Amino acid sequence: MNDTVDKLVIFLAKRDGIDKLVKTFQYVSKLANWRVEATHPDISKRFKNWEVAAGLSRKAFRTGRFLTGFNTLRRNPGSTPTLRLLAVLSNSGEMVYFFFDHFLWLSRIGTLDAKLAKKMSFISAFGESLGYVFFIIADFIMLKEGFKAERKLKSSEGKEKSEETEKEIQKIKGDRIMRLMAVAANVADLIIGLAEIEPNPFCNHTLSLGISGLVSAWAGWYRNWPT
């Protein structure tokens, strides 16, 4: 029990940890609002207020977040030319998302002209979606490389099985789980982004948005939870 509490404290001390918790509030309240909207309009309004407040607080908390893209490219630009290009494209899209998200937040709270909100939302969502597409492609490439490396290690086990080899295999499997979580989160967020760029019955349905938001939040919980 104490270990779980310690991990929760560490998790919530991170910017991403707080973001995933508030994102959970945002999309749980969205689904709750949809569920009771027709039968309990007074309760529905409370859930709607919770959703809006959670969404705006996440935007405020992400102030300056676009700068992390520069740091990521500086520290880990990619091991091959293809991965380096994908890293530049994906992080550039994410930086556009976080940068214009500042103006979207300011327009929604009334600091800037409210008419800017729709335009800022479109630019932000476009950059976000573009970034997620390249993140997903890069993760699939790395997953493929991981499978190849694991097969190679397993084929050499019969000749020279060692503790080091087993550790390397476990490391590859651990990385695979994290990348699958990243793909799940990015696909879910891509659906949310597409709902803003090109509204359609599937992406814009409350159930689709709510489930996508929770998948993204909980995949983020898993990836950021202390080991």
Describe this structure in words.
The protein has one domain (2-224). With 227 residues, it is mainly alpha-helical. The relative contact order is 0.12. The chain has helices at 2-12, 15-36, 41-61, 68-75, 81-108, 116-155, 163-197, 206-224. It is globular. The chain crosses the membrane at residues 120-143. GO terms for molecular function: identical protein binding. InterPro entries: PEX11.
Keywords for this structure?
227 residues, mainly alpha
Secondary structure layout:
Elements: H1 2-12, H2 15-36, H3 41-61, H4 68-75, H5 81-108, H6 116-155, H7 163-197, H8 206-224
Strand content: under 5%
* DSSP helix fraction: over 70%
Q: What is the chain-wise order of helices and strands?
A: HHHHHHHH
Tally the helices: 8
Terminal CA distance reads 15 Å
Mean pLDDT: 91
Secondary-structure content class: mainly alpha
**Alpha-carbon Rg, integer:** 20 Å
Q: What are the low-pLDDT stretches, counting only 5+ consecutive residues below 50?
A: none
Organism: Vicia faba (Broad bean)
InterPro entries: PEX11
Family: Belongs to the peroxin-11 family.
Function: Involved in peroxisomal proliferation. Promotes peroxisomal duplication, aggregation or elongation without fission.
